[in-house]
Every structure is written in C-alpha cells, then in structure tokens.
Amino acid sequence: MARVVVEIMPKPEILDPQGKAVAGALPRLGFTDFASVRQGKRFELEVAGDATEDVLAAARRAAEEVLSNPVIEDVVSVHVATED
Predict the structure, then answer these.
(1) Where in the cell is it found (predicted)?
(2) Which among 6, 10, 64 has a CA at the least distance from the CA of 38?
(3) Exposure string (b/e) for 21-46, b if CB count within 10 Å is 16 or more?
(4) Based on the number of CB atoms within 10 Å of its own CB, is 47 exposed (0-12), middle (13-18) or buried (19 or more)?
C-alpha cells in the first residue's frame, strides 16, 4: 500500500491571515529567523497498490478539481510519500 501526498498553497496574491498570525507569533516565542509564513493544506491519499504514474496523474486531477479551490489556491506538489 502506497501513500500519495498532495500539497496546496494559497496563490501568492491571496491574503493569508493564518500565515500572518503565525508570522506574528513566532518572534514573540523566540523564533526570529523567519521573515514570513504562508499556511497551506496537505492531503495524504492511500493507494491500494503501487503509486504508478497513472495514480499520480489521478491524484493531481483530484487535487485540481476537488481538493483545491483553483481561484485562490495552487497545487504545488503531488508525490509519493517516503517512509521516514
């Protein structure tokens, strides 16, 4: 059984209030190395079998048509999860 990871981020021109809130909190918590934060979404799709090129293409299609809002979000990555 394989896992496909889909990562989605707001388009650059879209305001990101959650990212802005996190960016404001980081320095107060001692994390001063970061200039900005953008918050996105991550989906993990389990596959009953191998993650073939056809499965990855289907995952990308699902990401573009169902998992994301193409008006305000970009699908930035569709890949096979690696075991850590």
Answers:
(1) Cytoplasm
(2) 10
(3) ebbeeeeeeeeeeeeeeeebeebebe
(4) middle
* Interval 59-84: pLDDT, tens: 999 999 999 999 999 999 999 998 76
Which residues fall within 8 angstroms of residue 14, CB to CB, at 6 or more apart?
72, 73
Q: Is the pLDDT of residue 34 over 80?
A: yes
Q: For residue 77, give the nearest of 45, 48, 42 by alpha carbon.
A: 42
In the block, tokens 């994301």 appear at: 68
For the entire predicted model, the pTM comes to 0.86
Q: What domains lie within the chain, and their CATH numbers? A: 2-80 (3.30.1280.10)
* CA distances, 27 to each of 21, 22, 57 (Å): 11, 9, 40
Q: Which residues pair with 73 in a beta bridge?
A: 10
53 near 60, Cβ under 8 Å? no
